[in-house]
Amino acid sequence: MVSPNHRSTSEALIEIVEAFPAEEMTLQDLMEGLGERSFGFVLLLFGVLSAIAIVPGLATVTAIPLLFFGLQMFAGYRTPWLPKFISERSFAKADLLATVKRAVPAMRWVEKICKPRLLFLTGRFAERLLGILVFVLAAVIALPGPGTNFMPGVAIAFMAIAIIERDGLMVLIGMLVSAFALYLGYLGLHLVITEVLPWVWEPTQELWKSVAG
Known about the structure:
Layout: H1 9-18, E1 24-26, H2 27-34, H3 39-51, H4 58-75, H5 84-87, E2 90-92, H6 93-113, H7 124-142, H8 150-165, H9 168-212
Antiparallel strand pairs: 1-2
């Protein structure tokens, strides 16, 4: 549970975005604002941006850093890192701030019930295993199917808060949310393959036949 003198994770994220002086922010700016923090903070930020993607194409863009973070967690990196061709992608500061603020009520609810417990689920070895799960969830976010970004983003943000607050029980709950998110991702992908692709492919075939004939 968050103590009165403890600055909440949601407050820290808002302060990072608000403190940036320019109107455009790159992913590198966000990383530098987070500083030398654990993976929990970057997972929370990019998970929120993926789940509440009010900027067109933002979910797909944020999925790429999450893929990198998942691999880095599994490899045992202490701090997150992004290659330059990804980190230089920019967005309007106002859009990013609006996205984060939309998620604040939910984040504060999770923070209120978090407390240090089952610490073995928030240690280095557990973090490596969670890296695999983050990678898989990020891959689902990157898929073009309907609703493939919201629940995986929520699951990543949920586990991120649990890691920051060192709450192993919340990590377990986050894993359950992840399982549900993966199921929804499967349904979305199945819908694209069985409904959308045939709807596009059949007229294309007919057009090709008429042109070729």
